[in-house]
Amino acid sequence: MFLSVSIPLIAKIIFILVIGGFMPLSAMTFLTVMKRKKKKEFEKALKEMSISSKRNVEDVYSAGNFFLPVTFVTLICLLAVTYFSFADGFAGGMKDNLWLAGPFFGGTDAAGQPINNTGIIAQSMGVLAMAFMGGFLWAAQNIIVRLIANDIAPNVYYSAGIRIILASVIALILSFIIGSESGNDNVFSFRSSLGAISFITGMFPERVLTYLINLYKRFFSPDKLNEEILSLYHIEGMSLQHRERLAEVSIDNAQNLATASLTKLLLETPFGARQLIDWIGQAKLICYAKDQVGTLREVGIRSVFDFVKVPQTKESLSEIAESAKMSYPFLQIIYDQITNDRGIRALYSFMSGVNTPNAESKEEQTTTESPKKPT
To answer: Residue 69 — very low, low, confident or very high, per pLDDT cuts 50/70/90?
Structure first.
């Protein structure tokens, strides 16, 4: 009798400890093992570009900066997994609940009697549990990948906690939409997949939120400039994972990227200097050319550095404008803005010093040559 009671309880406690302990253990691993490598990579990039910066790894990756975000997401995980692990002991007695019944809370039937919302509450709890697991597994996978890449900043734990909360709310809203129309046979068959849908919502809450926004888009006014013309989707070589990573440092469109600090991005993201400089160059061209950046790429101009590499004459600009079917005065304005921007020339000079054979061979020669004896 004792074993039959204690084994399930021990299993639940172990499960709670594993889920709740993952976040602080990952932070401790980074701080004790991986941070040194991050420091070396940052200092190497600055040296190659001959940049002197007051920024340093300790400013961002100190143990004190990790305390609050790790505590935040750990508490969320502990509370959620404990609640769901022991829900079987109290869920059956819940007749109505504002959070779990949502719009069905306090409803009455035709006779004016309170409606028993036990069914919708049980569905909501199942949805929340699957959404939490999806969000936690995504966050755990993301943290492991970034731990290997020496890319665990404190805000990744805030993002993980907010993502789990967002996923749970979105999944709950979906369950209310489905539950409110349970009389429809098609919706009922859709409800049978609600667990899988909730888990996917936990993994990709932003995409499901976008779907809901498009479903009710008549209530929203689109921001064409920032969401379409200046979208990071126009940056060549940038994947969805890259865009999500940049969003963590408050870069969600081309204008943000074009004006971002290179040293800050080197310090707070895992991307190499050459890759970041190329993206910034593309973003600057998007800011200047707006929706005509595609026509410039068709004639071989993909970033502002293509104007810096070879100085253009009036005749060459005219030929480019004609080939790209652009207004010559508009192209001249773009060219003048680019060539008068000292920051663009500085970035181009930085790029020439990053990971070049000459720079690497000189560094290797310096470290391998033995000191000459005095004659």
So the answer is: very high
User: For residue range 301-333, what is the model confidence (pLDDT) as tens digits?
Assistant: 889 998 888 777 888 888 888 888 888 888 898
CA 271 from centroid of its chain's CA atoms: 14
Let me know whether 176 and 242 are in one domain.
Answer: no
Same domain, 242 and 94: no
Same domain, 243 and 149: no
> Does residue 362 form part of some domain?
no
Q: How far is it, in rounded angstroms, from Cα 138 to Cα 13?
A: 22
Report the length, in residues, of the chain. 375
268 and 257 Cβ atoms separated by less than 8 Å:
no
Per-residue tokens: 216:
């009710």
Domain that holds residue 137: 2-106+115-220
Give, rounded to a whole angstrom, the gap between the first and last alpha carbons of the chain: 90
- Name the residue among 296, 293, 297, 352 with its Cα closest to residue 321: 296
- Residue 25 CB neighbours (<10 A): 11
Over the chain, what is the mean pLDDT?
81
How many domains, in total, are found in the chain?
A: 2
Token pair recorded at residue 303: 């970033």
